[in-house]
Amino acid sequence: MESKNAASRQVRGSKKTTEAAKRRKDIPDGQLTKELRAQLRRLDMAKVREENQTEAAGRERQKNKPGSHDNDNGKVAVKREKLLEGGDQSLATPLSCLSPKSIMDLEMELVYTDEEDIPFEFADPVEPTSTQSSRHGSEEDAVGTSDDVPLPQIDKQLQVTLKAASSCYRENNYEAAVEQLSTAWELCSKGAATEDPIETYPEDISSIASFIETKFVICYLKLKKPEEALNHSHRSIILNPAYFRNHLRQAAVFRCLERCSEAARSAMVADHIYWLMGGTEQHTSKLIKRYWQVIHEEAMIREVSFTAMYTPFVAGGKADKIEKLKSIFAKKHPGYVEHIYTDPHGFHILPQTAGNPPLPPRQYLLTLGFRSKHIGKILERWSDKKLPIFSDRKAPFCPVTEEETKAFWKNTGKRILPIMDFIRSTKLTDSRCPCSRGIEKLHLASCLGRLQREGEQSQVIHQALAELATVPYLQDLKKRDARLLQSLMADAMDTLEGSCDGERVWSRIQKIGLIEDYLFQAEDDYLQKKRLRRDKTVETKMNRTHPAT
């Protein structure tokens, strides 16, 4: 860790754009909330990317895909042939055809890097001077820095422990590395993170704790224990959402657990965070996009209850366009026409055409086709709401019974979750509510709690907190969105700690949504009965006026 000061100055230097952003926004420092400060770090990075088609490559059959079963090879091969087909033939880009070994090579470079330097992403920015220079070291993904930035001094005992953990890791003694990291975490939790904790920014201490958590992740992955690594990956993001490798390691854990849609989203977020925080190395960027593409294709191939079609967005009448897309989809995928749905809220981006700032990415509309009409209709009904719900109850004023929860989970919940995750795998932001992804996960956690699956509930709450912590880095927040974000995170933390005081924010959101559904349905029923009575009255009058002869 001898070079930690230089590395930290480099990452800290990437925050210099914050001051310029503040001047452009003309917002006094005292009025900036924590969330707004996080947003301002990204104002100098363009939100759009250039069109960058991937090079042609041959197709690799499903037999090379890890975790596949022989009896599924036929279905997978057919679905791979249809992948990424849309109304515009330019969308049907070649698939990545990477073997499991090639995927592991990507992960060795992106995920299993053993950093010795703790990145301080949250450090206050400073104005650059003419004497600044860029560091060229093991971390290729940072920008120019200032040598005058004071950095916190890591506690000596903690520093020795982390060096020992790194040595064990490089000697492939991962169990010993986990033991050293456990000691380091204990020291950190007792306040021994820096030499002078009183003078240290809380964000810097969070960066140190996140550094330990992310080391746990790669050790447990090496030990083939992704279940153990999962919560550590979530906590590393909660503590430091501004470090792109934390998101890549979360993606690797999800991939090992065969949760490919969630892994693809984590890789997409990592790509965004990399450029947002000042990463400029083209090689690293291409590797991240390649990794995202491979995982996203894996997600598309694995799903058998639905299939997807991405179509380049062209400005024009949206309603007519959606009807045309449904017609095109039905011709291309006749086995998935029980219900066809085009996501009308926001746009999707694909790794194949997500270039680098400042040029814009290509935007796509996503059309989904389902084998089950019930699941398709529920998804469409839920997606029309500004705030998400996770229930199909018809009696919102009655308490939920255990039998109702089990029936909902079996018939709807576990079947619709993969679809919701897939939609988010190419949708970086949400045009209706920035916190939607976190709310979806918190609804799921409540459902798991009612099913008495406490371990899974805790894991999902950690995942929701990681999603919410990342929100300010993905899109601008209005004041009401910032307040909602703070309330959701506070209630989620209380739930993890076992506090049962009051109703949770997401529970109130769901209750209001169900009541709205109930009232709309009651109104529809009333109007339908009114039309029937009117028609019957007219028919009766006609019969009296013109009696049958």
Characterization of this structure:
- There is one protein chain.
- This protein has a three-stranded antiparallel beta sheet, sandwiched between helices.
- The protein has 19 helices and three strands.
- The longest helix is centred in the last third of the chain and has 41 residues, at 505-545.
- With 549 residues, the chain is mainly alpha-helical.
- Among the domains are: 4-48 and 102-128 and 136-290, Serine Threonine Protein Phosphatase 5, Tetratricopeptide repeat (Alpha Horseshoe); 66-95 and 303-394, no CATH class.
- The N and C termini lie far apart (103 Å).
- The protein is globular, with a radius of gyration of 26 Å.
- α9 packs antiparallel against α10.
Shape: globular
* C-alpha-based Rg, rounded: 26 Å
The separation of the N and C termini measures: 103 Å
CATH architecture of the domain at 4-48 and 102-128 and 136-290: Alpha Horseshoe
Residue share in β-strands: under 5%
Low-confidence stretches: 1-72, 84-94, 122-148
| CATH superfamily descriptor of the domain at 4-48 and 102-128 and 136-290 | Tetratricopeptide repeat domain
How many beta-strand segments?
Answer: 3
Please count the helical segments.
19
| Percentage of residues in helical conformation | 55-70%
Overall structural class, as computed from helix and strand content, comes to mainly alpha
Averaged pLDDT? 78
Could you please say which CATH topology of the domain at 4-48 and 102-128 and 136-290 applies here? Serine Threonine Protein Phosphatase 5, Tetratricopeptide repeat
* Helix-strand topology string: HHHHHHHHHHHHEHEEHHHHHH
The strands making up the biggest β-sheet line up spatially as 1-3-2
